[in-house]
């Protein structure tokens, strides 16, 4: 749908004014001709002529007014009633309401622009409603699974004479489920604050290569457990001006996914390089890859390429990453070969983007 189309013909154009002016001139001209060209004989007085002309003026003005009213009802009143009907449907929750334009694009006027903007608004509301429904369904599913685990293992713990080994296994499963619940709630709150611009950026200048090293070492136990090869190629002394805490979330999410989806004995590569006024970070794995239809939606909230939910996760990590990169002024993309590898590329400006009070809640 084309947004912000220009008006090709105004409702209050010079053309319409000239039409109305010509109509008025026609009434006046006819009245003067009737007055001066009357064939009344000399016995009729000037007063009688005046009255006859007056009633002719009334008749012609009434006729012109009826024609003007009919034109307004057809050209303005009818589309306005259609718009009012559509707005009533939207207020009642029917976001499928649309209004047909009055004219083609070459002859569009202000009403056509109003109708176009209304249709765009209805489309956006429909999308928001769909996302809201998907969000509730996804949250319900993600909450239900760990809660069911907690409930089942708690019931097992009530069994009399339960062996110590079994008791510890149940306690560990409950701990893992509560950790997943805690991560889910934390990520939902973070994402909500980021989307509503309630998290204030606190940029500072620091070395990005050192932060990446710290994040990589944080996964040392996991990559050693899976016997993964870690290949790093980081430029030295790469300063950036950004919110270090938020960017740490980005690297931890990307590295966590790389470790999670790379099979035992695989390889994870991390690259950092300068690109003019930008820095570029690449995280590549030799995992299962991402199909094209999944790659197009991978940054959506609660979307998981593994529809069986066989792998742990709640589909919020990459949505968080995407939003953080956006507010930092950077870009993120993914390239993948199914069955071979996936590469996430993050480009960040070396200087923090200018911030406004609307973005951070405080003056720049």
Structure, described:
It is a single chain. The longest helix is centred in the middle third of the chain and has 48 residues, at 110-157. This protein has helices at 14-36, 46-91, 110-157, 164-195, 208-217, 220-225, 244-261, 292-295, 317-328, 357-360, and strands at 204-207, 229-234, 239-242, 267-275, 278-285, 331-337, 341-349. Helix 7 (244-261) runs antiparallel to helix 9 (317-328). The chain is elongated, with a radius of gyration of 35 Å. The protein is α+β, with helices and mostly antiparallel strands and 364 residues long. The protein has a five-stranded mixed β-sheet with strand order 2-4-5-7-6, with helices on one face. A two-stranded antiparallel sheet has the order 1-3. The chain has ten helices and seven strands.
Describe the sheet with the most strands.
5 strands, mixed
Secondary structure tally, helices: 10
Low-confidence stretches: 39-43, 306-314, 356-364
Strand order of the largest sheet: 2-4-5-7-6
